[in-house]
Design goal:
The complex is a heterotrimer of chains A (about 400), B (about 160) and C (about 400). Chain A has 18 helices and eight strands. With about 400 residues, chain A is mainly alpha-helical. Chain A is elongated, with a radius of gyration of 26 Å. Chain B is α/β, with parallel strands linked by helices and about 160 residues long. Chain B has a single domain, classed as 2-Layer Sandwich (Beta Polymerase, domain 2). Helices cover about 20% and strands about 30% of the residues of chain B. Chain B contains three helices and seven strands; from the N terminus they run H-E-E-H-E-E-E-E-H-E. Chain C has two domains: about 120 residues, no CATH class; about 270 residues, no CATH class. Chain C has 16 helices and two strands. Chain C has a two-stranded antiparallel ribbon. The longest helix of chain C has about 40 residues. Chain C is globular and about 75 Å long. The N and C termini of chain C lie far apart (about 65 Å). Classes of the chains: A mainly alpha (about 400), B alpha/beta (about 160), C mainly alpha (about 400). The interface between A and B is large, with 39 and 38 residues.
Chain lengths: ~400, ~160, ~400
């Protein structure tokens, strides 16, 4: 230490003359010279925790995160601009590409918005088929989320068990639409094919639909298999200690920051568009909306797990309703290719939150403006309040509970 | 916020409509109501006041989105459209505010201090449409690269395939 | 010299007791099986060369009036001792290396089955995969950043790998398969074992990478939490056996394995040694979900491959420690395996029964570690500090008290 620094001690003269060194003097001294440096750590775009292409800059004071700054936009394709040059029919496969994990929801939302603009009501059976397709996609998406949470925990057992269960729902998807991820299934005015047209070389009436039978079998199997995974996580203090009490946000913060979906229901916001602003025939099926008040990572985890159980409940009911409506009920309407001028918007409960499409049509066969509201885009903007004060080790877990999907974030 | 959660009633839209029109007479026109939806045209001067009112008095806690819309050279104006949702008092009701901005004056007061969730939506709208949100804490490029000098979602910006 | 068969050259010293050779490093009368194997290997090589030299150049070669009988020198016992030592190192390393490869394979298969997949499938039930991995890392470019601190970067990696290999080779497989037999053998191994976090700390700093730095600091932070309870348990085992010599500790477990009186210590030691080996769930220093690859981030290609191998070697040492301290080492209860080997007669006494027993137990201990790995999530630095000081530390003291009670009570 140089002499210059010693003279900076406030009471150096007094100390030299024999005065007692007080705690305040020591604090003033150490506070001015022992300043710990904060370090900006850039996680991403190539980083194991960023399930996709995005960057999270975190400011770390030792192991404690003091600031966070998410950077998105690596996948920005100008989706909303591009669709302005496409006809409505051509947008359907493009809407699939918004979110690869649950592609059906965006296609569904797009078709629903167009139908609303056209002022038509799709057939009853179609509504149930869409609900089934939506819930299959929700299950897929949640299982993929559970898998990625497993890797963030450093545990690959959860990852592989979840992907194993996801395969069953993938198979159901393939049976229904012929594709695993980008399904291209809903159409404006209906869906592409009837559930009774699958396996058409076999007897295929209400009692013999193999698809519907396998769907129910899948639900039965899944209810047991999910307990297996949940049992591994919930009975395990290493998992629990990483989730309980980390990434806490309050209900008011959550509502104000625009966080929606399971993350919001984990903070006590009792809101689910399927129940509170019902679309299709969600008001005709009976299901519970899980709400937990604690607002930490574990609440978000628990809400998603409970939602998966509710999904099978919904699917079972819809299968009954589809069977009751029978094979002869229509599943698709003829619709005009042009949508009359006007503005309309629809909201839909995405697996990740609240998604919305706003359609400004000008009477031609392509939209004038089509806005997509992505839940993750808003959820990720709340990284800073979520991460402040947590440890670096908890960053992947807290961000995993948001369930990042970059296709819809960057659009 | 200690507000009771109510079951949906048909009278809510009319109730909200009358409240809004009474409070902001002359500056706000309710253009229509649908089930769980109230649509209104708003003058840009009152947007901040209006947003604070619907948040604090009508308990609209959640800003779904803030979006821009370019109405083209014919009308020489742009729109900013707000969608705001209620979780408690009018559970499930969505408000839509449409604000017209002429090409000469693409400025509007930010609402990101009313709803934190509007922050990125406003940044996005600025970078894609060039609509400036006054007093926004950080109006920077978000989705597009920092060196862009144009606003790609304006109608004057043509995609190659459209030409 | 008259023509003699190659057999005569190779078996020239077979009648003699190899432990009495001049320069025999383990002391007269102390058997050492790998040394004997090396000696026999050298006798084959040296004998064959000697036979060939005599065949090609019959009679002693004379230079400046001195007889330079190279072939006689090659099969001289004193020469054999020196050459056999070189081969001894290779034999010891090869056995440790193959044992580690098998535990690597075991981890892949067991972990695979636990996760409902098959694990590696290339050749010999997936064992050959590790050869493919080795070749792959060997073929990689040697890439490193230009802004590293070169000297520390290379030396710390070399030291981490070096100490790991060294201690893995130092773990005795049986009373006749060892490298050193000091009275404080256990302490020496543990001392070298605990060095790695320091190298990791320096290495994390040398790489000029924030992830590495945090990883290095975590390694040091973690060490202070598990090292103390672990050493307390080692000393407790030594107390029970009355010696720090590995052979004596194993001999004390002839009939009752220490896992029974020290069951509390066993659980604690198993978890602590998992942490010492930096295996999941205690791989905080290389936590890939937040720190990319932690302190290894800047090491690529063969460097990474060797560090990975060193990790498994440390895992094998942990398992060896568990076997020595708790599972009765190379002994089975109520059977004297060394006597069994002796009874096989002079031609078959070398059959490595105790060594295989030791390795099987080590693989069983490794199996326990794998089961821990597939069932738990990675812990946080603060929770492992909590765990170390608030759970393991009291448990190890409880274990010590139990042992003291047993000692005072005269049971041991």
């Amino acid at each position: 230490m140089t002499d210059e620094k010693i003279t900076q001690i406030p009471d150096a003269q007094a100390i030299a003359e024999g005065a007692e060194v007080t705690k305040e003097m020591a604090a003033a001294y150490t506070g001015s010279t022992m300043d710990t440096d904060k370090m900006w750590i850039i996680m991403g775009p190539q980083h194991p925790f960023s399930h996709g292409l995005w960057t999270l800059k975190i400011c770390a004071d030792g192991e404690i995160v003091t600031d966070a700054d998410p950077i998105v936009g690596y996948l920005h394709r100008g989706w909303e601009k591009e669709v302005e040059n496409r006809t409505y029919t051509k947008i359907i496969p493009m809407a699939d590409r918004l979110c690869y994990a649950a592609s059906m929801t965006y296609t569904h939302l797009f078709c629903m918005t167009c139908e609303k603009a056209l002022g038509i009501d799709v057939p009853e059976k179609t509504k149930y088929i869409r609900i089934v397709a939506d819930e299959i996609n929700r299950l897929q998406s949640h299982l993929m989320w559970l898998a990625s949470v497993g890797t963030d925990f450093g545990n690959y057992t959860v990852f592989l068990w979840s992907t194993r269960e996801r395969e069953y729902w993938m198979d159901m998807n393939v049976r229904l639409c012929g594709a695993r991820l980008t399904t291209n299934y809903p159409r404006i005015g209906g869906v592409r094919n009837d559930v009774f047209d699958i396996d058409c070389d076999l007897p295929n009436d209400e009692d013999h639909s193999r698809f519907l039978r396998d769907l129910v079998r899948c639900c039965d199997h899944f209810d047991k298999a999910l307990w297996e995974i949940v049992g591994l996580v919930d009975n395990n203090s290493t998992f629990m200690s990483r989730m309980l009490g980390t990434g806490i946000i309050t209900r008011e913060q959550c509502a104000n920051l625009g966080i929606t979906g399971p993350a919001a229901r984990g903070t006590g916001i009792d809101f689910d568009i399927r129940r509170d602003n019902p679309y299709d025939n969600y008001d005709q099926v009976d299901f519970d909306v899980p709400v937990i008040n604690s607002g930490d990572s574990y609440a978000r985890y628990m809400v998603r797990v409970e939602e998966m159980f509710q999904c099978t409940k919904i699917i079972r009911q819809c299968v009954q309703k589809i069977k009751a409506l029978g094979r002869s009920a229509p599943y698709r309407l003829k619709v005009p290719s042009k949508i009359p001028a006007g503005r309309t918007f629809c909201t839909l409960e995405d697996p990740r939150g609240e998604s919305m499409m706003y359609l400004h049509s000008d009477g031609t066969d392509h939209p004038y403006r089509l806005k997509v509201r992505s839940p993750i885009f808003v959820n990720v903007s709340a990284s800073k309040p979520l991460l402040e004060g947590c440890r670096i080790a908890d960053v992947p877990i807290i961000m995993a509970m948001i369930d990042m999907c970059l296709g819809e974030t960057d659009r | 916020m200690d507000l009771q959660i109510r079951e949906y009633q048909d009278s809510w839209e009319a109730e909200i409509k009358s409240k809004l029109e009474a409070k902001f007479a002359g500056k706000l026109t309710v253009t229509g109501t649908q089930t769980r939806k109230v649509l209104a045209k708003v003058d840009k001067s009152i947007i901040k006041e209006l947003c604070l009112y619907v948040r604090d008095e009508l308990s609209f806690e959640h800003c779904i989105s803030v979006m821009g819309n370019d109405l083209g050279d014919a009308e020489q104006k742009m729109e900013v459209i707000y969608h705001i949702e209620n979780y408690t008092l009018y559970k499930g009701v969505i408000l839509e505010f449409t604000v017209d901005l002429s090409y000469d004056e693409l400025h509007i007061e930010t609402v990101s201090d009313v709803w934190g969730g509007a922050n990125w939506h406003e940044r996005e709208t600025w970078e894609l449409y060039g609509i400036v949100f006054d007093n926004h804490p950080r109006l920077e490029r978000l989705l597009t690269p920092d060196n862009y000098e144009f606003f790609p979602f304006r109608k004057s910006y043509k995609l190659r395939e459209a030409q | 010299m008259a023509y003699r068969s190659i057999i005569d050259y190779v078996t020239a010293n077979w009648g003699m007791d190899y432990t009495t050779y001049t320069g025999y490093p383990f002391g007269a009368g102390v058997e050492n099986l790998p040394y004997l194997i090396s000696l026999r290997i050298w006798e084959c090589i040296g004998g064959a060369i000697a036979w060939l030299l005599d065949l090609l150049f019959p009679g002693a070669v004379t230079i400046d009036g001195y007889d330079i009988d190279v072939s006689a020198w090659l099969i001289d016992p004193y020469t054999c001792v020196i050459f056999a030592l070189v081969i001894f190192m290779i034999v010891i390393f090869a056995v440790a290396f193959i044992a580690v490869l098998i535990s690597l394979w075991e981890e892949r298969k067991v972990l695979g089955r636990a996760m409902d997949r098959r694990g590696t499938m290339i050749g010999m039930w997936g064992f050959v995969q590790c050869v493919a991995d080795g070749l792959k890392t060997f073929m990689k470019d040697n890439v490193h950043s230009t802004r590293i601190d070169k000297m520390t970067y290379w030396w710390t990696a070399a030291l981490v790998i070096g100490t790991s290999v060294l201690i893995d080779c130092m773990v005795p497989l049986s009373g006749r398969w060892f490298v050193v037999n000091y009275d404080a053998g256990l302490i020496i191994i543990m001392g070298l074992y605990a060095l790695a976090p320091f190298f990791i700390l320096v290495s994390g700093w040398a790489q000029n990478n924030k992830y590495s730095l945090i990883g290095g600091i975590r390694a040091a932070e973690m060490m202070i939490s598990y090292e103390v309870p672990m050493l307390i348990i080692i000393v407790t085992a030594a107390l029970l056996a009355g010696s720090l010599n590995i052979g004596d500790i194993v001999a004390a477990q002839q009939d009752v394995w220490f896992v029974i009186p020290m069951c509390v210590g066993f659980v604690t030691f198993l978890i602590c040694s998992t942490a010492e080996a930096e295996r999941a769930p205690f791989d905080l220093a290389e936590a890939e979900s937040e720190l990319v690859e932690g302190w290894q981030t800047e090491y690529g290609g063969m460097k990474w491959g060797l560090i990975m191998l060193a990790d498994y070697m440390r895992g094998a040492v942990s398992c060896g420690m568990i076997v020595i301290l708790f599972f009765g080492g190379w002994q089975l209860p109520f059977i004297d395996l060394m006597q069994v080997c002796k009874d096989l007669g002079p031609n078959f006494f070398w059959v490595p029964i105790p060594e295989v027993v030791f390795l099987l137990k080590a693989w069983f201990a490794f199996f326990l570690m794998i089961m821990i790995r597939c069932g738990v999530a990675r812990v946080r630095t603060d929770s492992i500090l909590n765990l170390g000081w608030k759970v393991f530390m009291p448990l190890s003291v409880v274990n010590l008290l139990i042992v003291l009670a047993l000692k005072v009570g005269g049971i041991y």
